[in-house]
Design brief:
binds pyridoxal-5'-phosphate; 4-stranded antiparallel beta sheet; 15 helices; 7-stranded mixed beta sheet; globular; 434 residues
Amino acid sequence: MKRDEKVFEVIQKERERQTNGIELIASENFVSDQVLEAMGSVMTNKYAEGYPGARYYGGCQNVDITENIAIDRAKELYGAEWVNIQPHSGAQANMAVLLACLQPGDTFMGLDLSHGGHLSHGSPVNSSGILYKPVGYMVDEKTGTVDYDAFEKLALETKPKLIICGASAYSRDWDYKRMREVADKIGAILMADISHPSGLIARGLLNDPMPYCHIVTTTTHKTLRGPRGGMILIGHDFDNPYGKVTKKGIIRKMSSLLDSAVFPGVQGGPLEHVIAAKAVALGEALSDDYKTYVEQVKKNAKVMCDEFIRKGYGVVSGGTDNHLMLIDLRKNFPLVTGKMVENTLVRADITVNKNMVPFDSRTPFQTSGLRIGTPAITTRGLKEADMPVIVDMIDNVISNIKPDGNQCTIDEDVIIETRKKVNAMMSPRPLFAW
Ligand SMILES: *Cc1c(COP(=O)(O)O)cnc(C)c1O
């Protein structure tokens, strides 16, 4: 058959875009060649509904092996007792947990969307908000960090059956212990969605949710640096607040509910090519190189955040503990919106995303904030010394934006000059430098 140039030309263009630009979207990363190879393999041809050793189709002897390798490596990496590696995405992992733990109409709690939470934690346009009754807790307006006292009060008042900790745009660590104490007071299940800081948690750079949360979900493609996908985990220390069942018994019960919720609850056949790639990525994440990588991600984020603060930028919560920061433009650029900055920077080959800041007066389409993360540029091999250079370029672009209502203009020379510097910095670097 003739090669489909129409599609492969575009893929080549996308490779060039990724290679030449500075990627600061906090949820993105670059996978290794062997992760790509596994993902683009014949494993995609196989139907394997069910789980290793218990499939609805024949010929699963090979995919059983890769799926078991992925599960074993995930258990080792996170210190988990049980893992479901099949969710097609983070949102589907969360959907499966809610399906397993709640009845339609039940109340659950998650961090408010405009305060950093994720769509799948109760947005009215997501199944979590359509089928169940979400209650949103918030960050404190002054500190920009989760207000645990207000959280406790709200939990005791609304008695959710399940509480979600974790977020998409939150730069601080979580007090899982405190949240578990609150969950225990009302007999709620505590779930951590660690999609974003997953890799940092796995290698001990942030608090560990496994001892405190009954269930943990994560994506595999953010800091973890694997293929696009999700997984669900239960820790060794899962302990049962609901009655006279042994720890082993409750894990068995909970895990079988979760397995059924993933398949056939919300999915059909698993993506065995992606699962093979998950196995490869999890193997990488167990290596010394990966430990060095996540340490560098954290160092880069801290240096970059300090540099924005030094230049007078508002940063939600005043800093970062993890791989990302949330810039509040209202402090020194009150007329500039997140959307203007996102659209202008992309023309200079710098990608960030506009983001609501807590208590934002603008809509999610405009926003007053920017979310910036270091996982992708760290994979490209950038170090602490490169961070002030990047902040300078971003600051120069933002300072030259001339806002006019929701529109803006900028001197074209600023874009051309910046793009030149960006391309010179990045084009010689491989996508995956580790
Ligand atoms: C990214 C993210 C998800 C969803 O991941 P998808 O794979 O895009 O569905 C879920 N929860 C949180 C907290 C996230 O940041």
